[in-house]
Amino acid sequence: MDDDSPAGFRARAGWTREQARAIERTAATTAPVFYPPETDQIPDYHVWDTWFLRTRTGRLATVDGYRVCFSLTAPADLLPGKRHDVATIRVFYSADGRNWRDGGPVFEDALGQRQWAGSALYDDGEVYLFYTAAGEESAPELTYTQRIVAASGGTIHTTEGFELRGPWTHHELLQPDGERYEREAQSRAMIYTFRDPWFFEDPATGETWLLFEANSPVPEGSDACGGDAGQQEYNGSVGLARSPTGDPLAWELDEPLLDAVGVNQELERPHIVHKDGRYYLFVSSHLHTFGPGLSGFDGLYGFVADELRGDYAPLNGSGLVATNPENAPFQAYSWMAFPHDGEVLVQSFFNYYDFAGATLDEISGLSDSEQMRRFGGTLGPTLRLDVEGAGTRILGKLGHWEIPMAGESLPPTDRERIDATERRSGYDTR
Ligand code: FRU
Protein backbone atom coordinates (compact mmCIF):
# COMPACT_ATOMS: atom_id res chain seq x y z
CA MET A 1 0.00 0.00 0.00
CA ASP A 2 3.03 2.31 0.40
CA ASP A 3 3.58 4.55 -2.60
CA ASP A 4 5.29 7.88 -3.01
CA SER A 5 3.09 10.22 -4.98
CA PRO A 6 4.72 13.06 -6.96
CA ALA A 7 3.27 15.58 -4.51
CA GLY A 8 4.96 13.85 -1.62
CA PHE A 9 1.98 12.29 0.11
CA ARG A 10 2.56 8.70 1.15
CA ALA A 11 -0.63 6.70 1.23
CA ARG A 12 -0.64 4.11 3.99
CA ALA A 13 -3.03 1.45 5.12
CA GLY A 14 -5.69 3.20 7.10
CA TRP A 15 -9.26 4.08 7.82
CA THR A 16 -10.98 4.65 4.49
CA ARG A 17 -13.89 6.90 3.59
CA GLU A 18 -15.78 3.86 2.38
CA GLN A 19 -15.45 2.19 5.78
CA ALA A 20 -16.38 5.37 7.64
CA ARG A 21 -19.50 5.78 5.50
CA ALA A 22 -20.88 2.68 7.24
CA ILE A 23 -20.84 4.33 10.70
CA GLU A 24 -24.24 4.02 12.33
CA ARG A 25 -25.72 3.74 15.80
CA THR A 26 -26.77 0.15 16.50
CA ALA A 27 -27.76 -1.68 19.69
CA ALA A 28 -24.23 -3.10 19.82
CA THR A 29 -22.50 0.28 19.58
CA THR A 30 -24.81 2.66 21.48
CA ALA A 31 -24.24 3.20 25.19
CA PRO A 32 -27.17 3.49 27.56
CA VAL A 33 -28.06 6.97 28.85
CA PHE A 34 -25.75 8.04 31.69
CA TYR A 35 -27.26 9.99 34.59
CA PRO A 36 -25.32 12.17 37.04
CA PRO A 37 -23.79 10.28 39.97
CA GLU A 38 -25.52 10.54 43.34
CA THR A 39 -22.45 12.25 44.77
CA ASP A 40 -19.61 13.91 42.94
CA GLN A 41 -16.52 12.20 44.36
CA ILE A 42 -14.21 15.09 43.50
CA PRO A 43 -16.48 18.15 43.81
CA ASP A 44 -13.72 20.80 43.75
CA TYR A 45 -12.41 19.92 40.29
CA HIS A 46 -13.58 19.26 36.78
CA VAL A 47 -12.08 15.86 35.91
CA TRP A 48 -11.80 14.74 32.29
CA ASP A 49 -9.17 12.68 30.38
CA THR A 50 -8.03 9.92 32.74
CA TRP A 51 -5.46 7.11 32.57
CA PHE A 52 -4.50 4.36 34.96
CA LEU A 53 -1.13 3.45 36.34
CA ARG A 54 -0.20 0.29 34.45
CA THR A 55 2.60 -2.23 34.66
CA ARG A 56 4.94 -3.05 31.80
CA THR A 57 2.68 -5.95 30.85
CA GLY A 58 -0.23 -3.55 30.42
CA ARG A 59 -2.22 -4.58 33.50
CA LEU A 60 -3.73 -1.94 35.75
CA ALA A 61 -1.29 -1.71 38.65
CA THR A 62 -2.22 -2.32 42.28
CA VAL A 63 0.27 -0.65 44.61
CA ASP A 64 -0.04 -1.68 48.27
CA GLY A 65 -3.72 -2.36 47.63
CA TYR A 66 -4.41 0.86 45.73
CA ARG A 67 -5.59 1.45 42.19
CA VAL A 68 -4.04 4.68 40.92
CA CYS A 69 -5.17 6.99 38.15
CA PHE A 70 -4.18 10.34 36.72
CA SER A 71 -6.59 12.90 35.29
CA LEU A 72 -6.60 16.28 33.63
CA THR A 73 -8.32 18.62 36.06
CA ALA A 74 -9.32 22.26 36.48
CA PRO A 75 -11.10 24.13 39.28
CA ALA A 76 -14.81 23.25 39.31
CA ASP A 77 -15.89 26.91 39.22
CA LEU A 78 -14.21 27.47 35.84
CA LEU A 79 -16.37 27.55 32.71
CA PRO A 80 -15.90 23.97 31.38
CA GLY A 81 -14.95 25.17 27.87
CA LYS A 82 -11.92 26.96 29.35
CA ARG A 83 -10.56 23.94 31.17
CA HIS A 84 -8.06 22.90 28.45
CA ASP A 85 -6.21 26.20 28.96
CA VAL A 86 -5.36 25.49 32.59
CA ALA A 87 -5.30 21.67 32.64
CA THR A 88 -3.32 20.23 35.55
CA ILE A 89 -2.60 16.55 36.17
CA ARG A 90 -3.80 15.28 39.56
CA VAL A 91 -3.45 11.79 40.99
CA PHE A 92 -6.40 9.85 42.42
CA TYR A 93 -6.29 6.57 44.34
CA SER A 94 -8.77 3.99 45.53
CA ALA A 95 -8.64 0.95 47.81
CA ASP A 96 -11.84 -0.58 46.40
CA GLY A 97 -12.01 0.66 42.78
CA ARG A 98 -15.18 2.62 43.57
CA ASN A 99 -14.34 5.34 46.05
CA TRP A 100 -11.58 7.64 44.85
CA ARG A 101 -9.59 10.22 46.74
CA ASP A 102 -7.63 13.18 45.49
CA GLY A 103 -3.86 12.83 45.97
CA GLY A 104 -3.26 16.39 44.74
CA PRO A 105 -1.46 17.86 41.73
CA VAL A 106 1.39 15.64 40.56
CA PHE A 107 3.90 18.31 39.47
CA GLU A 108 5.06 21.72 40.56
CA ASP A 109 7.37 22.22 37.62
CA ALA A 110 5.84 20.45 34.62
CA LEU A 111 6.84 21.29 31.05
CA GLY A 112 4.45 23.39 28.97
CA GLN A 113 2.02 26.08 30.03
CA ARG A 114 -0.45 23.33 30.83
CA GLN A 115 -0.54 19.55 30.61
CA TRP A 116 -2.67 17.39 28.39
CA ALA A 117 -3.27 13.65 28.23
CA GLY A 118 -0.83 10.83 28.61
CA SER A 119 -0.24 7.46 30.23
CA ALA A 120 1.56 6.11 33.29
CA LEU A 121 3.95 3.23 33.81
CA TYR A 122 4.84 1.54 37.10
CA ASP A 123 8.19 -0.14 36.57
CA ASP A 124 10.47 -1.48 39.28
CA GLY A 125 8.84 0.66 41.95
CA GLU A 126 9.17 3.85 39.88
CA VAL A 127 6.36 5.88 38.33
CA TYR A 128 6.90 7.26 34.82
CA LEU A 129 4.33 9.76 33.67
CA PHE A 130 4.06 10.39 29.93
CA TYR A 131 2.14 13.56 29.08
CA THR A 132 1.68 16.32 26.55
CA ALA A 133 3.37 19.66 27.27
CA ALA A 134 0.91 22.12 25.71
CA GLY A 135 2.10 25.68 25.06
CA GLU A 136 5.57 27.20 25.46
CA GLU A 137 6.37 27.77 29.13
CA SER A 138 8.32 30.93 28.24
CA ALA A 139 5.57 32.56 26.11
CA PRO A 140 3.60 35.36 27.80
CA GLU A 141 0.36 34.49 25.97
CA LEU A 142 -1.38 31.13 25.57
CA THR A 143 0.23 29.08 22.77
CA TYR A 144 -0.84 25.77 21.27
CA THR A 145 2.39 23.92 20.56
CA GLN A 146 2.41 20.32 21.72
CA ARG A 147 5.39 18.24 22.77
CA ILE A 148 5.48 14.65 23.92
CA VAL A 149 7.30 14.49 27.23
CA ALA A 150 7.71 12.27 30.29
CA ALA A 151 8.53 12.66 33.95
CA SER A 152 10.54 10.02 35.80
CA GLY A 153 11.37 9.62 39.46
CA GLY A 154 7.91 9.21 41.04
CA THR A 155 7.54 6.91 44.04
CA ILE A 156 4.44 5.82 45.94
CA HIS A 157 4.38 5.81 49.75
CA THR A 158 1.52 4.30 51.71
CA THR A 159 2.61 4.04 55.36
CA GLU A 160 0.71 7.19 56.34
CA GLY A 161 -2.02 7.18 53.71
CA PHE A 162 -1.30 7.42 49.99
CA GLU A 163 1.37 9.74 48.66
CA LEU A 164 2.94 10.08 45.22
CA ARG A 165 6.29 11.86 45.62
CA GLY A 166 8.99 13.26 43.37
CA PRO A 167 11.50 14.61 42.80
CA TRP A 168 10.48 14.37 39.17
CA THR A 169 12.78 14.88 36.22
CA HIS A 170 11.05 16.03 33.05
CA HIS A 171 12.31 14.82 29.68
CA GLU A 172 11.37 15.94 26.21
CA LEU A 173 10.81 12.74 24.21
CA LEU A 174 9.54 13.49 20.73
CA GLN A 175 9.00 16.28 18.22
CA PRO A 176 7.30 15.84 14.82
CA ASP A 177 9.77 15.22 11.95
CA GLY A 178 7.71 16.99 9.24
CA GLU A 179 7.81 13.88 7.04
CA ARG A 180 5.90 11.17 8.82
CA TYR A 181 4.42 13.55 11.35
CA GLU A 182 3.14 17.00 10.53
CA ARG A 183 4.69 20.03 12.23
CA GLU A 184 2.44 22.81 13.37
CA ALA A 185 3.74 25.12 10.61
CA GLN A 186 2.73 22.58 7.95
CA SER A 187 -0.82 22.28 9.19
CA ARG A 188 -3.53 23.46 6.79
CA ALA A 189 -6.36 22.72 9.20
CA MET A 190 -7.90 24.48 12.20
CA ILE A 191 -6.89 21.65 14.47
CA TYR A 192 -3.33 20.46 14.97
CA THR A 193 -2.23 17.48 17.06
CA PHE A 194 0.99 15.92 18.33
CA ARG A 195 0.05 14.60 21.73
CA ASP A 196 -1.37 11.93 24.05
CA PRO A 197 1.59 9.50 24.47
CA TRP A 198 0.61 5.98 25.50
CA PHE A 199 3.15 3.34 26.57
CA PHE A 200 2.81 -0.24 25.29
CA GLU A 201 5.07 -3.25 25.63
CA ASP A 202 4.12 -5.92 23.12
CA PRO A 203 3.56 -9.16 25.08
CA ALA A 204 4.27 -11.25 21.96
CA THR A 205 7.62 -9.71 21.00
CA GLY A 206 8.73 -7.82 24.12
CA GLU A 207 9.21 -4.68 21.99
CA THR A 208 8.47 -1.32 23.59
CA TRP A 209 6.32 1.29 21.86
CA LEU A 210 4.83 4.69 22.41
CA LEU A 211 1.60 5.49 20.58
CA PHE A 212 0.43 9.07 20.13
CA GLU A 213 -2.09 11.24 18.32
CA ALA A 214 -0.72 13.01 15.23
CA ASN A 215 -1.42 14.27 11.72
CA SER A 216 0.03 13.12 8.41
CA PRO A 217 1.64 15.82 6.27
CA VAL A 218 -0.39 16.38 3.09
CA PRO A 219 1.32 19.10 1.06
CA GLU A 220 -0.62 21.66 -0.95
CA GLY A 221 -1.30 20.27 -4.44
CA SER A 222 -1.07 16.65 -3.25
CA ASP A 223 -3.14 14.07 -5.08
CA ALA A 224 -4.33 12.47 -1.82
CA CYS A 225 -8.14 12.09 -1.75
CA GLY A 226 -8.22 12.57 -5.53
CA GLY A 227 -6.67 16.04 -5.04
CA ASP A 228 -9.63 17.27 -2.96
CA ALA A 229 -8.08 20.02 -0.79
CA GLY A 230 -11.10 20.09 1.54
CA GLN A 231 -10.78 16.41 2.36
CA GLN A 232 -6.99 16.60 2.71
CA GLU A 233 -7.30 18.81 5.80
CA TYR A 234 -8.75 15.85 7.67
CA ASN A 235 -5.42 14.14 8.14
CA GLY A 236 -5.45 12.43 11.55
CA SER A 237 -3.06 9.58 12.30
CA VAL A 238 -1.96 7.29 15.09
CA GLY A 239 1.75 7.88 15.59
CA LEU A 240 4.27 5.34 16.75
CA ALA A 241 7.72 5.51 18.32
CA ARG A 242 9.97 2.66 19.39
CA SER A 243 12.36 2.29 22.28
CA PRO A 244 15.11 -0.01 20.99
CA THR A 245 16.31 -0.87 24.51
CA GLY A 246 13.00 -0.75 26.38
CA ASP A 247 14.13 2.44 28.16
CA PRO A 248 10.91 4.42 28.81
CA LEU A 249 12.79 7.68 28.17
CA ALA A 250 14.55 6.95 24.84
CA TRP A 251 12.36 6.86 21.74
CA GLU A 252 12.77 6.90 17.97
CA LEU A 253 9.96 7.93 15.64
CA ASP A 254 8.58 5.10 13.53
CA GLU A 255 5.97 4.92 10.76
CA PRO A 256 2.40 5.77 11.82
CA LEU A 257 0.24 2.83 12.83
CA LEU A 258 -2.86 4.15 11.14
CA ASP A 259 -3.74 6.97 8.78
CA ALA A 260 -7.12 8.62 8.38
CA VAL A 261 -6.40 11.14 5.61
CA GLY A 262 -9.71 12.30 4.12
CA VAL A 263 -11.61 10.63 6.96
CA ASN A 264 -10.93 12.31 10.27
CA GLN A 265 -8.81 15.07 11.73
CA GLU A 266 -8.33 13.80 15.27
CA LEU A 267 -7.60 10.24 16.36
CA GLU A 268 -7.34 11.00 20.07
CA ARG A 269 -5.68 9.10 22.89
CA PRO A 270 -4.72 5.98 20.87
CA HIS A 271 -4.22 2.81 22.91
CA ILE A 272 -4.09 -0.94 22.45
CA VAL A 273 -5.74 -3.90 24.14
CA HIS A 274 -3.97 -7.18 23.40
CA LYS A 275 -6.61 -9.90 23.48
CA ASP A 276 -6.75 -13.46 22.08
CA GLY A 277 -3.39 -12.82 20.37
CA ARG A 278 -4.77 -9.81 18.48
CA TYR A 279 -4.07 -6.09 18.71
CA TYR A 280 -7.11 -3.93 19.27
CA LEU A 281 -6.28 -0.30 18.58
CA PHE A 282 -8.72 2.23 19.99
CA VAL A 283 -9.06 6.00 19.51
CA SER A 284 -11.62 8.61 20.53
CA SER A 285 -12.99 10.99 17.94
CA HIS A 286 -15.57 13.71 17.54
CA LEU A 287 -18.59 14.27 15.35
CA HIS A 288 -17.12 17.56 14.08
CA THR A 289 -13.73 16.09 13.06
CA PHE A 290 -15.02 13.82 10.27
CA GLY A 291 -14.16 14.95 6.75
CA PRO A 292 -16.59 16.51 4.27
CA GLY A 293 -19.32 14.13 3.16
CA LEU A 294 -18.89 11.84 6.17
CA SER A 295 -20.85 11.78 9.37
CA GLY A 296 -19.77 10.14 12.57
CA PHE A 297 -20.38 10.63 16.27
CA ASP A 298 -18.42 11.48 19.37
CA GLY A 299 -17.33 7.93 20.01
CA LEU A 300 -14.78 5.24 20.62
CA TYR A 301 -13.47 3.82 17.36
CA GLY A 302 -11.43 0.65 17.01
CA PHE A 303 -9.35 -1.43 14.62
CA VAL A 304 -7.90 -4.94 14.83
CA ALA A 305 -4.71 -6.52 13.49
CA ASP A 306 -2.80 -9.77 13.93
CA GLU A 307 0.45 -7.88 14.39
CA LEU A 308 1.15 -4.64 16.16
CA ARG A 309 2.07 -2.83 12.96
CA GLY A 310 -1.08 -3.94 11.18
CA ASP A 311 -2.66 -3.83 8.70
CA TYR A 312 -5.59 -2.77 10.85
CA ALA A 313 -9.19 -3.54 9.90
CA PRO A 314 -11.98 -1.42 11.38
CA LEU A 315 -14.05 -3.12 14.08
CA ASN A 316 -17.69 -3.73 13.16
CA GLY A 317 -16.89 -2.82 9.54
CA SER A 318 -16.98 0.95 10.13
CA GLY A 319 -14.67 1.39 13.13
CA LEU A 320 -17.43 2.52 15.51
CA VAL A 321 -17.24 0.66 18.83
CA ALA A 322 -19.17 2.82 21.30
CA THR A 323 -21.06 6.06 21.00
CA ASN A 324 -23.51 8.06 23.06
CA PRO A 325 -27.26 7.67 22.57
CA GLU A 326 -29.01 9.99 20.11
CA ASN A 327 -30.78 11.94 22.86
CA ALA A 328 -27.52 12.54 24.79
CA PRO A 329 -24.91 12.61 22.00
CA PHE A 330 -22.23 14.32 24.11
CA GLN A 331 -22.74 12.55 27.45
CA ALA A 332 -19.25 10.97 27.47
CA TYR A 333 -15.88 11.38 25.79
CA SER A 334 -12.25 10.27 25.90
CA TRP A 335 -12.73 6.55 26.23
CA MET A 336 -9.98 4.20 27.53
CA ALA A 337 -10.38 0.45 27.05
CA PHE A 338 -8.66 -2.16 29.21
CA PRO A 339 -9.11 -5.92 29.64
CA HIS A 340 -10.76 -7.38 32.72
CA ASP A 341 -12.28 -10.81 33.48
CA GLY A 342 -12.55 -11.84 29.81
CA GLU A 343 -14.29 -8.61 28.82
CA VAL A 344 -13.01 -5.22 27.76
CA LEU A 345 -13.99 -2.40 30.11
CA VAL A 346 -14.17 1.15 28.83
CA GLN A 347 -13.78 4.16 31.06
CA SER A 348 -14.64 7.70 29.92
CA PHE A 349 -15.48 11.07 31.42
CA PHE A 350 -18.98 12.42 31.93
CA ASN A 351 -19.19 15.31 29.47
CA TYR A 352 -22.14 17.54 28.45
CA TYR A 353 -24.80 15.06 29.44
CA ASP A 354 -27.84 17.32 29.22
CA PHE A 355 -27.38 18.67 25.72
CA ALA A 356 -28.60 17.40 22.36
CA GLY A 357 -27.57 20.22 20.01
CA ALA A 358 -26.21 19.50 16.55
CA THR A 359 -22.60 20.14 17.58
CA LEU A 360 -20.71 20.89 20.79
CA ASP A 361 -19.92 24.38 19.46
CA GLU A 362 -23.50 25.39 20.29
CA ILE A 363 -22.68 25.02 23.99
CA SER A 364 -20.84 28.34 23.98
CA GLY A 365 -24.09 30.08 22.98
CA LEU A 366 -25.67 29.08 26.30
CA SER A 367 -25.40 31.14 29.47
CA ASP A 368 -22.46 30.39 31.75
CA SER A 369 -24.72 28.81 34.35
CA GLU A 370 -26.33 26.54 31.75
CA GLN A 371 -22.90 25.48 30.46
CA MET A 372 -21.91 24.61 34.02
CA ARG A 373 -25.14 22.77 34.78
CA ARG A 374 -24.96 20.56 31.72
CA PHE A 375 -21.33 19.51 32.17
CA GLY A 376 -20.48 16.33 34.12
CA GLY A 377 -16.78 16.95 34.80
CA THR A 378 -16.31 13.61 36.56
CA LEU A 379 -15.70 10.05 35.43
CA GLY A 380 -18.65 8.41 33.69
CA PRO A 381 -20.00 4.91 34.23
CA THR A 382 -17.61 2.20 32.99
CA LEU A 383 -18.89 0.38 29.90
CA ARG A 384 -18.65 -3.38 29.46
CA LEU A 385 -17.72 -4.59 26.01
CA ASP A 386 -17.72 -8.01 24.42
CA VAL A 387 -14.87 -8.18 21.89
CA GLU A 388 -14.72 -11.15 19.56
CA GLY A 389 -12.65 -11.19 16.35
CA ALA A 390 -13.52 -8.03 14.42
CA GLY A 391 -16.85 -7.50 16.19
CA THR A 392 -17.77 -5.79 19.46
CA ARG A 393 -20.98 -5.41 21.49
CA ILE A 394 -21.79 -3.21 24.49
CA LEU A 395 -22.95 -5.52 27.28
CA GLY A 396 -23.90 -2.97 29.91
CA LYS A 397 -22.32 -0.60 32.39
CA LEU A 398 -20.84 -0.40 35.86
CA GLY A 399 -21.03 2.65 38.13
CA HIS A 400 -19.34 6.04 37.74
CA TRP A 401 -15.62 5.72 38.53
CA GLU A 402 -16.09 1.94 38.98
CA ILE A 403 -12.85 0.17 38.08
CA PRO A 404 -12.92 -3.40 39.47
CA MET A 405 -9.92 -4.51 41.49
CA ALA A 406 -7.56 -7.17 40.10
CA GLY A 407 -9.19 -10.61 40.16
CA GLU A 408 -12.65 -9.21 40.94
CA SER A 409 -15.31 -10.91 38.82
CA LEU A 410 -17.91 -8.86 37.05
CA PRO A 411 -21.61 -9.11 37.93
CA PRO A 412 -23.91 -10.79 35.39
CA THR A 413 -25.03 -8.41 32.63
CA ASP A 414 -28.71 -7.41 32.36
CA ARG A 415 -29.08 -9.89 29.50
CA GLU A 416 -27.53 -12.70 31.53
CA ARG A 417 -29.84 -11.87 34.46
CA ILE A 418 -32.93 -12.03 32.22
CA ASP A 419 -31.73 -15.32 30.72
CA ALA A 420 -31.19 -16.80 34.20
CA THR A 421 -34.69 -15.71 35.36
CA GLU A 422 -36.27 -17.16 32.24
CA ARG A 423 -34.41 -20.41 32.76
CA ARG A 424 -35.55 -20.62 36.39
CA SER A 425 -39.17 -20.06 35.47
CA GLY A 426 -38.90 -22.66 32.69
CA TYR A 427 -39.79 -20.00 30.15
CA ASP A 428 -37.58 -19.99 27.12
CA THR A 429 -38.01 -17.17 24.64
CA ARG A 430 -35.63 -18.60 22.09
C1 FRU B 1 -9.28 14.59 24.51
C2 FRU B 1 -8.24 15.70 24.43
C3 FRU B 1 -6.85 15.11 24.38
C4 FRU B 1 -6.03 16.21 24.98
C5 FRU B 1 -6.95 16.77 26.04
C6 FRU B 1 -6.79 18.23 26.33
O1 FRU B 1 -10.34 14.86 25.38
O2 FRU B 1 -8.49 16.51 23.30
O3 FRU B 1 -6.45 14.74 23.09
O4 FRU B 1 -4.83 15.72 25.48
O5 FRU B 1 -8.27 16.53 25.58
O6 FRU B 1 -7.65 18.63 27.36
What is the beta-strand fraction? 35-45%
List each distinct ligand once: beta-D-fructofuranose
As residue ranges, the low-confidence spans are 1-7
Tally the beta strands.
26
Number of helices: 4
> What value does the average pLDDT take?
94
Helix content: under 10%
Subunit organisation of the chains: single chain
Structural class: mainly beta
Separation, N- and C-terminal Cα atoms: 46 Å
Major sheet summary line? 9 strands, mixed
Radius of gyration: 21 Å
Q: Shape, please?
A: globular
> Helix and strand string, N-terminal first?
EEHEEEEEEEEEEEHEEEEEEEEEEHEEEH
Provide structural commentary.
The protein is mainly β and about 425 residues long. It contains four helices and 26 strands. Strands 3, 4, 5, 6, 7, 8, 9, 10 and 11 form a nine-stranded mixed sheet that branches. Strands 12, 13, 14, 15 and 16 form a five-stranded antiparallel sheet that branches. Strand 1 and strand 2 (about 10) form a beta hairpin. The protein is globular and about 65 Å long. Mean pLDDT is about 95; it is low at about 1-5. Beta-D-fructofuranose binds near residues 213 and 333.
Keywords:
five-stranded antiparallel β-sheet, globular, 430 residues, binds beta-D-fructofuranose, nine-stranded mixed β-sheet, mainly beta
Brief overview:
The protein is mainly beta. Helices cover 6% and strands 41% of the residues.
Topology (SSEs and partners):
Blueprint: E1 3-4, E2 10-11, H1 17-20, E3 45-55, E4 67-75, E5 88-94, E6 101-105, E7 114-123, E8 126-134, E9 146-157, E10 163-165, E11 169-174, E12 195-201, E13 208-215, H2 229-232, E14 235-243, E15 252-253, E16 258-261, E17 268-275, E18 278-285, E19 299-305, E20 313-314, E21 320-323, E22 332-340, E23 343-352, H3 368-374, E24 375-379, E25 381-388, E26 391-400, H4 414-424
Beta-D-fructofuranose (FRU) is lined by residues 49, 72, 84, 87, 116-117, 132, 195-196, 213, 268-269, 333-334.
